[in-house]
Amino acid sequence: MAKQKESSSRIKNEAQYEALRDKGYSKEKAARIANTENSGVKGGKASPYEERTKKELYQQAQDIGIDGRSKMSKNELIHALRNN
Fold first, then answer.
1. What count of other Cβ atoms lies within 10 Å of the Cβ of residue 32?
2. Tens digits of per-residue pLDDT, 37-55?
3. What is the pTM of this model?
4. Euclidean distance between the first and final Cα of the chain, in Å?
């Protein structure tokens, strides 16, 4: 039990992590998403992907660990972010 608390203490947004796990996300992927800078931000506060620069999209993809991002176009980054 102590091991579980230790690993969960590294999660920035525990509620989001648990919700993602309940949806079937792997522990690694749920942790990656729950530990992003804006984890848990809701209500359209983030700008739509189409309004962001390729550099901003690349950074977001890097933050959540999308593989192959360096070779992706802006549209491919948008698709990868929406489907990750």
1. 19
2. 766 666 556 778 899 999 9
3. 0.54
4. 30
